[in-house]
Amino acid sequence: MGLLKLISHQQQIKWHPRQECYLVSLSLNILLKIVPASTEEFIEDGGPSTVLQLLSNSRDKVYHYSHDIMLRSIELLALLSHKFTTIRDSVAFNGGVNCVLGLCEDVLESHFLQEQQQHLLSAGIFLLEKVCNHINALEVLPMIIKYMNRYIEPDEKDQLQIPKVIILCLSFIWNQIACCEDNAAKFVKMGGVYLILDVVKERNLVSEYLKSYVNQQVVNF
Predict the structure, then answer these.
(1) N or C: which end of the chain has fewer CB within 10 A?
(2) Which InterPro entries match (predicted)?
């Protein structure tokens, strides 16, 4: 796929960073449209590893608009992994868990969470839920716990918390932790059940869906 060459910088033209960002973002949007019809070609051409490398490279750039590339890269892999098992397996095989987890951990190291960082975090957690197995899910769990603690006691400079992030955290716990006896036991030892209750109590979550979701988790634990 020619678009993969563009986002992997296999070209002689040197673009201005802002132009490069626009072209890469446009390429990622197009890939989201065409890959569903050619998943095998996308995998054979190294699509998942190319996008992961783009994501990794963007983390090292200081341009403020590199955030857009990171978000679009994760969204592309997340949506494709949700729909296609082969792409999900390829992302996992090419180190997707470590790459995305590292990005999420970087975000949580910020002194305050801006809205764009929360969107990035939510996309990352969604992708991690898709590509994790029950073994490496435990590697992700400390990051999930860390965000939940920050959700309960946010930094005074944090922008208004986006509900989607905490809901995705609970979804990860339900689908990757609670369904595995060993993982669930470790989650309980980490005080996870009480933390879930604190999330509901301290932040006054009024969503009926979220309330029933949390109650179901507590009952199962």
Answers:
(1) C
(2) ARM-like (IPR011989), ARM-type_fold (IPR016024)
